[in-house]
Design goal:
CATH class of chain A: Mainly Alpha
Distance between the termini of chain A: 49 Å
Number of strands of chain A: 2
Order of helices and strands of chain B: HHEHEEHEHEEHEHEHEHEHEHHHEEE
Radius of gyration of chain B: 24 Å
Structural class of chain A: mainly alpha
Oligomer: heterodimer
Shape of chain B: globular
CATH architecture of chain A: Orthogonal Bundle
Largest sheet of chain B: 8 strands, mixed
Number of strands of chain B: 14
Shape of chain A: globular
Number of domains of chain A: 1
Largest interface: A-B, 43 and 40 residues
Strand order of the largest sheet of chain A: 1-2
Radius of gyration of chain A: 19 Å
CATH topology of chain A: ABC transporter involved in vitamin B12 uptake, BtuC
Number of helices of chain B: 13
Chain lengths: ~290, ~400
């Protein structure tokens, strides 16, 4: 193979790998919207909290794995608490209230982060087991941890698919998304389903932050950047569709990568141009339902 | 009852008259050109980031400036100092409004700030409109001492051009010819790369490609792949903060560190070394400050700053400290008389600042003419290697005073 082809393929790998990480964040966002109709602007903040928790626990325990094991349940608890204390009052309210609440949460969580972890940039060590690279060309190596991240994202995506499409609880989740009253009258406690889905969404975002921490580094405001891109992903994929989020993530990952390679002058716009094109073609997104 | 509630009696008026006569008599004996004897405090308006990403930088500038003043007994030009502090949040949209607050509401004698270039340029605008004295203790935007330069605007830090130019010279002197430059697509990055290109070209080097990312994106993998494909002799980067941490780590992770040397403006490895870990070891950068300088002032400054704040001094602290020294140089010369504006500006222009970074003077455009150091990362320090360029002045393009 010629050099050009090899580097092209490496760029495809870059795009897919970036896209898969986006999927992990965007899936939680789209799930929460799809099931509960909540626009959660604080989703990026959960990503940031996850990263900071991973940093903090990894620092103390010396192991990222252990840190993730402690931090994920902690984030689930935080998710359950937030749902019980705040979000559950908003299901019947207008989207504007949700935007207000979740925007307020962004500011509050940023302040909480500042109090507990400070405002410094931190690095998280790649676990020793995966701290090596594979040589792709004489000059370029690929960190194995990045490949591992992609594998984890695929595994989580597959798990999510099985959970939603092939379990009883998943069935209730799908039913609840379609018709809340009907599900309730069939004797399923929809409040519990909602709480579960919300906690799951929070945990997904935080988990993404945790496994991305070694390559993304940990810094204030890191959630806001990923939040905007995640929204683009969700809109392209169709709001509420996990499958759409998956395809959307890969598209965005590739568009961003090749935007930087082939159209550097407009690299900042390629994502949004893709979004415009998709919406012109399918106004509800690739897999969105028009209601 | 009347006497108690109305303290103004004939006697007090007489006392007042006598006192003012005394003051008038006393003022006969001082040099006539400055209105000395102003007992009112002089007001410094510190507009710095106290929250957000740059909070640590703002705090170091603030503390070091106060240290410089307190080392002079808390007085400059014979007047005590009152600080008016305002958090600029590094928010350019609020820049003009905040600076106006200090100028119009608080009536500060000096505006001092800030870290973020966008906010600093808003301050430059306000200072120009109101003819207020301004000292910039960090932001390196070319315009402040370029097209927007003015007699009342000073800077104690650097221009983005300066470290870039110095690094270009260093690598050109090593005989390198082909480089790739990487940064975010924003003013600071473009100015820094511009400086590097100029320095590099002066020795026959050529920047073959500029890879600019949308600010503040940190997904560097596509760029690293492109660097590997281009195979330049070296890569010059301008990143700071979180972007610097991530780029340095990703560069090492991609296996490029050993085959294509990475060099940059000093901010690449300043205040970020702990987070960068092994990936930063051995990296060379250029800046107007370094660890391990053989400068007497530095050896006195570092322990003093540590004692005052319990934190280690850094380049931002030095810039804040020198803002304090520049203020003192100007105000001492006019004995605290802000009305003697011409003399004040002239004194500041002529000042030779005995800085921890080494002595420096100001250019006609009011930017430091200073040595730029080549540094190398060793452990958690940016160790001094050599003087990259001696007494380097920014070209101050577009400045009418230069």
């Amino acid at each position: 193979m010629s050099d050009r082809v090899i580097f092209f393929l490496i760029q495809v790998l870059n795009g897919v790998q970036y896209g898969l990480l986006l999927f992990l964040v965007a899936s939680g966002l789209t799930l929460i919207f799809g099931v509960m109709r909540i626009i959660n602007l604080a989703h990026g903040s959960f990503y940031m909290l996850g990263a900071y928790l991973a940093f903090s626990f990894a620092e103390r325990t010396g192991s990222l794995w252990l840190a993730i094991l402690i931090a994920v349940p902690l984030m689930v608890v935080i998710g359950l608490a937030l749902e019980g204390l705040l979000f559950r009052f908003l299901y019947v309210r207008d989207h504007l209230y949700q935007v207000l609440l979740t925007y307020g949460l962004i500011l509050s969580l940023e302040e909480v982060r500042s109090i507990f972890f400070g405002d410094d940039v931190h690095g998280v060590r790649v676990p020793d087991l995966l701290n090596f690279s594979v040589k792709l060309t004489p000059t370029l190596s690929y960190p194995v941890y990045r490949l591992f991240m992609s594998a984890v994202c695929i595994a989580v995506g597959a798990g999510l698919y099985l959970f939603i499409n092939h379990t009883r609880v998943g069935m209730s989740v799908r039913a609840g998304a379609l018709n809340r009253e009907m599900v309730q009258s069939l004797g399923i406690d929809i409040a519990v389903i909602y709480r579960l889905v919300f906690a799951l969404g929070v945990a997904l975002a935080a988990f993404a932050g945790m496994i991305a921490a070694p390559v993304a580094s940990v810094f204030p405001g890191m959630g806001n950047q990923i939040l905007i891109i995640s929204f683009v992903v969700v809109v392209i994929g169709g709001i509420g569709s996990v499958k759409g989020a998956f395809i959307g993530s890969l598209l965005i990952g590739l568009a961003d990568t090749f935007g930087q390679v082939f159209a550097r002058q407009i690299a900042g716009m390629t994502l949004y141009m893709l979004m415009v094109l998709v919406l012109l073609w399918r106004p509800a997104g690739l897999f969105g339902r028009t209601s | 009852m009347m006497k108690e509630s109305g303290p103004v009696t004939r006697r007090t008026i007489l006392k007042g008259l006598a006192a003012s006569a005394g003051i008038a008599a006393a003022s006969v004996f001082v040099p006539p050109c400055f209105a000395v004897g102003q007992t009112a405090k002089i007001k410094f308006g510190l507009m710095l980031p106290y929250t957000g990403t740059y909070a640590a930088l703002g705090k170091n500038i603030d503390d070091a400036l106060r240290l410089a003043i307190s080392q002079r007994g808390g007085k400059v030009g014979g007047r005590e100092v009152e600080y008016v502090v305002l958090d600029d949040e590094s928010e350019p949209a609020k820049g003009a409004e905040n600076a106006n607050k200090l100028v119009a509401r608080d009536k500060v004698d000096f505006l001092i700030g800030t870290v973020h270039s966008g906010v600093a340029m808003a301050m430059v605008k306000v200072a120009t409109d109101n003819d207020t004295m301004l000292i910039i203790p960090n932001a390196g935007a070319a315009a402040a001492t370029g097209p927007a330069c003015a007699p009342n605007i000073f800077r104690t830090s650097f221009t983005n051009w300066q470290p870039g130019f110095a690094m270009g010279k260093v690598v050109a002197d090593r005989g390198q010819k082909r480089a790739v430059a990487v940064s975010w697509d924003y003013a600071a990055g473009r100015e820094s790369i511009g400086g590097f290109k100029e320095g590099f070209a002066s020795g026959g080097g050529n920047v073959e490609k500029e890879l600019l990312l949308p600010f503040p994106q940190v997904e560097f993998q596509p760029i690293l792949t492109e660097i590997a494909a281009l195979k330049p002799q070296l890569v010059y980067v301008f990143f700071a903060g979180a972007g610097a941490v991530k780029f340095v780590k990703d560069y090492a992770g991609a296996g490029l560190k050993n085959s294509i040397p990475l060099v940059g403006a000093g901010f690449l490895t300043d205040g970020t070394l702990e987070a960068q870990g092994d990936a930063a070891q051995g990296l060379e950068t250029t800046l107007h400050y370094a660890d391990g300088l053989d400068v007497a002032k530095d050896k006195a400054f570092r322990p003093a700053f540590k004692k005052a704040t319990n934190r280690d001094a850094d380049v931002y602290a030095v810039q804040g400290y020198d803002a304090g020294q520049l203020l003192a140089a100007g105000l001492d010369a006019v004995r605290g008389d802000m009305k003697a504006r011409k003399e004040l500006v002239a004194a500041m222009e002529k000042a030779e600042i005995d800085s921890p970074r080494g002595k420096f003077t100001l250019s006609k455009a009011h930017n430091p003419v200073q040595d730029i150091y080549l540094r190398k990362v060793m452990g958690l320090e940016n160790k001094f290697v050599s003087v990259a360029v001696k007494a380097l002045a920014d070209p101050a393009r577009g400045c009418k005073m230069a």
